[in-house]
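User: quick one - fold this with magnesium ion bound?
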Amino acid sequence: MERARQFPQRHTLGLMGGTFDPIHIAHLIMAEEVRTTLGLSQMVFVPAGEPPHKMLRPVTPVQHRLAMVELAIITNPHFTISRVEVDRSGPSYLVDTLHLLHEQWGQDVDISFVIGWDSLEDFPGWYKPAEILAQLTQLIAVRRPGYVDDSAYNEKLEARLPGLKEKLRIVPVPQLDISSTDIRNRVAEQRPIKYQVPDAVEDYIREHGLYQTEIEVAVQATRHSTHTER
Ligand code: ATP
Ligand code: MG
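Assistant: Sure. Structure tokens for the protein plus magnesium ion:
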């Protein structure tokens, strides 16, 4: 946020919400692909504070997740980070985050929220989804390996949340079967994560001994998103 505010002349922003536990190259690649495809001036990464949908496992303390995002985005002048969710106590709902960002950036700023295919499926079940849509210029969905992708899919989503289709735009991005869950498991099993996260993030994980003990076979095996709210 602090960095975003230094560029008040820029009015088209992309938002990348996520737990980023840890941030990986699929996040970075999709963010840059969406940013350039839509001609957005900035992509703002918004790490979740206390994610309501990740209660199955303890989320890594926010200072680590923030530090890794900072390290990952440092080489891209169009990427920035917002602390809006981590500075707020309690669950972070996107609808509240958007209200806060509009207060900070002005009501006329165009916000496009970027969402992966797994999260899109859950979107109609998020807290106040119609109010989220109302605050977005566009909802940008990107496909993700391992998740259903057929033409009837968007119709079903529209039936669950009227008005969604009007705001929804699908942007093609390179398909990478990479997830934070798999990265955490790889670290715990001493398998490589090199090239799946930026070098600086890999170094940070090692230096701070993150993800050493964690094996999440069940979550990974189902490949189902478990959250109903965000
Ligand atoms: P976890 O396994 O802990 O859920 P993740 O890899 O899904 O981590 P998140 O922080 O949950 O990462 O995701 C943030 C956003 O990025 C979500 O909208 C998610 O759908 C999207 N995303 C993450 N990885 C990919 C990927 N490989 N391809 C497309 N979208 C992705
Ligand atoms: Mg996820």
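One thing worth noting: Residues 218-228 have pLDDT under 50 and may be disordered.
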